[in-house]
Amino acid sequence: MDLELRHLRVLVTIADAGSISTAASRLNISQPSLTAQLRRVERSLGAPVFERSRQGVEATAYGGDVLNRARIVLSEVADIQGLAPATEKSNGHPTHAHVGGFPGSPLWALGARLETIVPADNIRLQCQWSMQMLVQLLESDRLDCAIVRCMPDHDLALPDGVFAETVVEVDPAFVALPSDHALADQDMVDLADLAQESWVGEPPDDSGQHTHFTAACRAVGFEPRLQHVTVDSPAAASMISSGRAIALTSSSSGEADGVVVKPLRATPISRRLVLAWRAGSPLASHADTVHRLTVDAYLETVGESPAYTLWSSRHPDAVPTS
Question: pTM for this structure?
Answer without folding.
Answer: 0.71
